[in-house]
Amino acid sequence: MRFETSQHMKMGQHMKLAPRMIQSMEILQMPLAELEERIERELESNATLEVAEGEPETIEGGGPNAEPAGDVDGPMRIDEKTSEVEFERLDSFEESNPDAAENEFSSSDSSRDTGRFDQDLDAHPGSRRYEGERDAKMDAMAAAPARAASVVQQLRDQWALCDVESSLKPLGELIISFLDDDGYLRTPLETVADRAPTTGGGEDSLAGVGRVFREKPDVAQLERALKAVQLFLEPAGVGARDARECLLLQLDAVEDEGEDLGWPAKTVAAARTLIEHHLDDLLQNRLPKVAEKTGLSMDEINEAMMLMRRLSLAPGRRLQSESAAPITPDAIVEYDAEADRYVAYLNDNRLPNLRINREYAMMSKNKAMPTKDRDFLKTNITNAQWLIDAVNQRRHTLLRVVRAVVEAQRDYFDYGPQALKPLPMTGVAEQLGIHVATVSRAVADKHLATPRGVVPLRKFFSGGLQTSGQASDGGGEQMAWDAIKAALQKVVDGEDKNKPYSDDALVDEMKKQGIEIARRTVAKYRDQLGIPTARLRKKF
Question: Taking phi first (over 0 means left), then psi (-120 to 50 degrees means alpha), and beta for anything else, what does residue 61 get?
Fold first, then answer.
């Protein structure tokens, strides 16, 4: 075997994505809120890109639902008379402001010219940075709510105000540091004592400061501190080591309030008995067995369970202000009663109308300017034009996809989720004459505002099966998987809760509606919908 190196030539074809194509695909995939941030960043970094006030010009590809502008050079066509006037104005500005020529990209031989057009951006009335204009981004940051303190920090603040023995203060703070976000202490006290930071012997003044101890804490003392934490801290249930202890701590708080909360002492006592001795039977819905063991009537058990439903299995979550992120729909679907059809249009009125700054466009063609400055302007103008074209192409593609979806899913808008039909992306791609990957990017993270609420655009693309109601004569109806789930949910909602359907019975009920699916499919869809088994759904 011999290794050697050599040079040779061969012909081949390779497919590579140009930067412009990559940018176009990225922008197509962005939801509306993310696209707004992208445009804002580009406006800040690219001086040649600006916002057109008022009605957009034709050369920019204008309205929200306009066709793509294509490769146009409209912003580069400038009247010669206008050019002379603008250059005279720039010269006069430079003469009156000689210090304006200094900027970050100026050189010793070209700082005068480059500084001129950079300062002109601040002075131009159409610029985004003219004096007196508020910065929308800074206003949004100032109005944003402050980040909430963590659960542990909030509990520490409470503990600092608690009137407990001085010896328990550092131990309680140590225990709080081991609490999970839901308020549970899942670490054994022996482990807490073993992991407590110590100085290895030191001055007495260091004891307990910042949870630093001279020696390992005693487990018995930690037990006392834990009781104090459970007693003083809110919400009730914080510091519990399991679900049973958590519920009992909350029952203690309810019992302290007494009938002021509307729960009689008899109901509280029954709930305590159920939690302490029969929690496993309750979780398995074995209520007759619980009634036999406790001697309580079914009405008393149900009333106690109503009280237990008011309790929380994760009390620490109450200290977290987790709010769902708002969804901005990318398109809106409305019903036109006169034409008896659904009309779709894009919801991108918040996007600014972009254009290329005319002064910089002229400067890029001025051969009197240094080559370095002209190349800088041409690069930024090209980037700006790419962005404008990509945004317009996104509008065009997304609108076509949305209209194709609305046309294919008319029954969904008329009758609801049960009328959803299978709609593969390949079918829409063939209909529009585009690649299926383009359709996938167009629907990614997009939402529609419809008469039936805000729904993800991808919801309308799914597989399905043919119902068997009229399949023998070739007239079977196509149903999407989401429509089958909606039909299953409707069957479960309408069942007799005293005798709920088993999975086999659900298969038979679905078959009566012409939907033939296997038992394992019913079980899978039931789990996805969060529907428990028949034994757990039964009511006594």
Answer: left
Lowest mean pLDDT among 95-99, 304-308, 350-354, 402-406: 95-99
The residues that bridge with 213 in the sheet, in sequence order, are 198
- Report the run of H or E that residue 80 belongs to, with start and end: helix 80-96
For 421-433, give the DSSP string: ----HHHHHHHHT
As a whole number, the mean pLDDT across the chain is 78
Domains of the chain: which residue ranges? 19-73+352-388, 80-130, 151-319, 331-348+390-460, 464-537
Q: Do residues 300 and 272 make contact, with C-beta atoms less than 8 angstroms apart?
A: no
Reported as a single tens digit per residue, the pLDDT across 257-268 is: 654 556 788 888
Is the N-terminal amide bond of 532 cis, ω within 30° of 0?
no
Distance CA 131, CA 129 (A): 6
pLDDT greater than 90 at residue 92: no
Long-range contacts, stretch 503-509, CB < 8 angstroms, 24+ apart: 503/533, 503/534, 505/534
Task: Report angle CA 183, 189, 191 to the nearest 5 degrees.
Answer: 105
In the sheet that holds 341-346, the strands lie side by side as: 341-346, 331-336, 447-450, 453-456
Q: Distance between CA atoms of 262 and 126, rounded to whole angstroms?
A: 65
CA gap 512, 501 in Å, rounded: 14
Question: Residue 131 to residues 114, 126, 146, 525: CA-CA distances in angstroms?
Answer: 21, 11, 29, 60
Cα 1 to Cα 501: distance, rounded to the nearest angstrom: 73
Tens digit of pLDDT for each residue in 113-122? 444 444 444 4
pLDDT of residue 211: 58
CA distance 202 to 167: 18
Q: How distant, in Å, are the alpha carbons of 5, 110, 173, 307, 514 from that of 263?
A: 88, 83, 34, 8, 48
**Per-residue model confidence (pLDDT) at position 447:** 92
Which of 187, 152, 189, 191 has its CA nearest to residue 173? 152
Q: H/E/C letters for each residue in 263-290?
A: CCHHHHHHHHHHHHHCHHHHHCCCHHHH
Q: Are 535 and 285 in contact (CB under 8 A)?
A: yes
Rounded to two decimals, the pTM is: 0.63
Whether 401 shows a pLDDT value over 90: the answer reads yes
What is the tens place of the pLDDT at every residue in 201-213? 444 433 444 557 7
Taking domain 464-537, whether its CATH number is 3.40.1190.10 is answered by: no
Lowest mean pLDDT among 37-46, 79-88, 183-192: 79-88
Cα separation, 175 vs 281, in Å, equals 32
